[in-house]
Every structure is written in C-alpha cells, then in structure tokens.
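Open question from group meeting: does this chain pack into something compact, or does most of it stay loose? Before anyone orders reagents, we agreed to write out a predicted structure and look at it together. Recording both the input and the output here so the notebook holds the full record.
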Amino acid sequence: MKARKKTFGTRRAPIAEFRSLEEEFTKGELSKRSERAFAIYLTPLFALAVVAILIFSPESRALALELGSKAIELGKDWVLRGLLE
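Structure tokens returned:
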C-alpha cells in the first residue's frame, strides 16, 4: 500500500476573503485600532466565470466597446501631445 503524500482534508483556496481586526486597550495604551480588508482572489474557475459573463452579456460588450474607444481616443491624444511637446 502506498503512503499518501497529501494530508487528508486540505481546503481549496478561497474565492473571496474578508478580514477584520479591532483592538482597544485603555491602560495598556493603544486606544482603538480598526482594520478591515476585503480580498478577491482570481482563481481559474472565477476567471472563467467572469469571462463567460462578459462574453455573453450584450451590455458588457457595449461597455467594453465604449471603454475601448475612449482608451484609444485618450491614447491618440496623449501620443500626439507627446510628439508636439
């Protein structure tokens, strides 16, 4: 029988994570500290889902075309302004 190389019950990486830290001391100094963090991890499955939604949604395609045309317009102005100055 072969020995297992991986441990039993390993978890997959999370798609999103919310971290919060609140500290409050009075006599031992540090009077109130609050940190909050929200992180979205780009896993292959999450990336595939986002791409599929963006491809099949007509509104997102229209938004992408609008943003692309605006980026080209701003890039063209930036290049021309850079060449003139």
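Observations to bring back to the group:
Helices lie at 44-56, 58-84.
DSSP finds two helices and two strands in the chain.
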